[in-house]
Predict the structure.
Amino acid sequence: MPHRRCLIAALALLAAPAVVAHAAEPMGLADEKPLEVKGKVVDLLCELTGDCPQGCGQGRRQLGILTADGRLVAAAKGAVFFAGAVPDLLPLCGREVHADGLLVENPAMTLYLVQYLKPSPEAGFVPADAFLAAWKAQNGEAEEWWRADPTVKAVIGQTGVLGVPGLKPE
Amino acid sequence: MRSFPVASGLGLTAALTLLGAAGPAAATERVQVTGELVDSWCAVSGIMFAYGTAHHQCAVWCAVGGIPVSLKADDGRFYMVLKIEGDAVNVANPKLVTIQGHRVTVDGELHARDGVNYLLVDQVATDEGIVNLTHAEYGIVPFGE
């Protein structure tokens, strides 16, 4: 169906070879700016409140990048469809990261899409797709992780696709 | 809402750091906010219609995928939820996953910093469920299924 093909084509802009020199991919979003960000990987809640569990929350906390001049960049999205960037940034908790992606400066909220990052200063950019590897390790292969995920199935099974029990698409 | 100037990476090969004055410490205040819980990325980026019944399924996908959940207030402001009723787990938190799309009123602590309103919810005062019935107009977004 056309809508699905268009969306997948847009999202596929994120697909990339394993290592690239420079790579932010514009997506045509309003307010987007391709941007490289260098800074320290931090737990957002820790940075804001001082509530700092070990290891940036070990995957249970949203992460950001704190730049040398004190800007806190919320890394909301990674390069995997419908998935965040925490699995990509977590191994670098408390360390410097060099990320490449899109900063979306919506006047109502500024978010960063991490498309690529350098796992070490000497390394090249690699896609920020760690979520998928982690998901597959836990759940096995699937064409669309978002439909195969057991938590998703349980929630949608209870509420239906519209989120209102008993209400069905027309 | 504060915003800050940044340098575009378009056409540049050298890595950039964000430009501008040093970021301010987060301003903190007590707030009560009413609105719809949404997927932050779809709603803020505008990549697709991201509200109500039409987008409920995708909002669940994204919350399970670890994208932050935000509260879009009736005045149009977004608040990224970093804590929910004492629970500091904010990646795929089961509570947030199951109330995606609900219209709620929450009490909490607001930390505003560098273009983001971060909300630490103490209490969900009211939960009306999903009341934004958008599927008749938009279908199911994305993919239509």
Q: What stands out?
A: Residues 8-18 of chain A have pLDDT under 50 and may be disordered. Residues 59 and 86 of chain A are 6 Å apart (CA to CA).
